[in-house]
## 1
Amino acid sequence: MADFTLLVLDIGTSSTRALLFDSGARLLTDSIAQIPNAPHITPAGDVTFDADALFAAVIEAIDRVLAMPAALQRPVYAVAACTFVTNIVGVDAQGRPFTPLFTYASPGCAKAVATLRAALGASGVQGVHDRTGCPLHTSYLPARFEWMAHHHPEWFNQAQRWLSIGDYVLWRLTGELCTSFSVASWTGLLNRRTLQWDEEWLERFDLAVGRLPALVEAAPLTLRLLPEWRRRWPALREAIWLPAIGDGAAANVGSGAVTPQQVALTIGTTGAMRVVVPADQPAVPDGLWLYRLTAQEALLGGATTEGGNLLAWLRETLRLPSLAEIEEAIASMPPAAHGVHCLPFIAGERAPGWNEAAQAALVGFTQSTTPLDLYRAALEAIAYRFALIYRRLQPCLPDEGRHSAIIASGGALTASSAWQQIMADVLGRPLLLLQEVELSARGAALLALRGLGILQMLDALPPTPAATIQPDRTRHQRYQDRIEEQSALYTRLFG
């Protein structure tokens, strides 16, 4: 096949972007159009969006990127997409949204989770985790639907369909109502064994399966634009459109972490550690989730609510110096020598404890404690949380966790060489940094290429490495004691 262009839509919480890649999954020069997104934060802390505003951002991003010179170099063969996941909007019979687009950031659903826990009992809660791969938590849609049944029953009862933002965009542009296994698995409503909407949740919420989109593999399903959009975008007249996949799954693929031997660590505003495994996992380790990449491949791991958000808050609140000065000071400090114990739950806890009520804590500071001590304590504390996730991942990895370097990405982590060294020391594994950028969009492009039969294996086009950070064994051993101390503090405060 002659050289061609892939258009990738990346719908994130902070912005919507349209990007152009060549047939080798290489980002084309000067080929990114970015539109800021405007979330709404409720008094309870829930983050929502206007679905039509996000759709308008997609349209504007496509308009802009197709006007760029890179779009004229070769034909656009296909359009792939990745989106932030665990989001839902109710639409009426005419397809108009009449609820906010709810997201995974849903602390206001904490009481709904408590209600479900009480109703299901311990065995029922464990059964939910086993069937869906998702723990019972505010991040997932069962909690949102339970909340809605009590606070907005009119929304729940009148919605003709419930769609994710990727589903909604695809429907508006192609007329097709479907969702990928990848996106569906992030909702907490997909039965991981049958790959159908979970019957027990549907029965509890009296939710007819027809009110949810059809479940499909993202590729080789091939869709085309509706006539009105073909007239607007002649360059996309013949392009194949694919259902969206989850941005976390796409980031793993884009970083080259596509086998059980390759663990990916991403820390931006929040963080996640993930590994691609066969989908037929007999059990999901306690405290972790198991999502879908495709019908045959799963994504095992855990996510945190803390990352760059905590560091940004500390820099502003403590009035710290420039990032360059912070870096120099932090790098010169000995490990865990400040005497401060930190629980970094600035926005509640996800993996591995999934405690909606967990809050941040600082214990052990004195008059001699400096702002930089607190900052280093936060860097180490976040690393300790990933060490706990990594411990739970290791039994599922080849040779009990003996594998290649952990592939590191995300703006907060890659911006700090001091934090990279702390993370390598805490985990006791090398960190591999990449030259590649836009890993989620690159992953969506790679999955599209494989799904369309152009690429046989996801690892056929590996990313370009930039550097490897080696751990220090002495510091690693010192940090293990600090991890246990943090865990003991967690138990004292939260049980």
Note: The mean pLDDT is 95.
## 2
Amino acid sequence: MERWLSDASLVPHQRNRIDVCAALGVDERVIWPNSVRANVKTGHDREVFAVYPYRSACPRSVWAQLIAEARSEVFLAGYTSYFVWLEQPALLQTLRRKAESGCRIRFLLGDPDCDTTRQRERIEDVALTVSTRIRVTLENLAKLADTDSVEARFSAPEDGPNHIGLSVFRFDDHALVTPHLARTVGHDSPLMHLRRSEESGMFDRFAEHIEEIWSRGSDIRTSPAHA
């Protein structure tokens, strides 16, 4: 212990640092401030709250908590977003209550009949097709048609490739982001949990991405092909 304390260049393993600090009754930052700073995010990556190698590895409780705690905005900009209806109990009732309390609810979906959707279906070649998954969400949104503050749009045809390649789900200052890899379906793609802490950081970049696609989208309820 004396050797560690007398030579600042010597930094013991974390377990030993914890034992020393406990014995001396001091905070680790007092004795080894550099080791603490090395473990604290100070750059742009501090907005990365958690990462998962698969979307399915992110606990359902995380989604439930983010939805429940959102006060001003829930923006689900996945190409289909069908899985949230299957994995989150009573989601219809939850979204209805949130909308009635003033929370803005938005869904940005891919058009089930567009070329991007058909191409992706050929690539994935699975029984539960992309268009079917979109229609799961459309069926549930129809039950919220009488609810204020719930909006839904299809992304524009020219935005289809960008939309289907990146899903962003925003809950106030938190976002779950899934970049879709090659031929993998959504639940097999990685996921990042971002928490906004700065202007023009990673969170804002992804938020701006979905806002841009939203701005060119068409209202699902007024679209002639889906009226």
Note: Residues 117 and 130 are 6 Å apart (CA to CA).
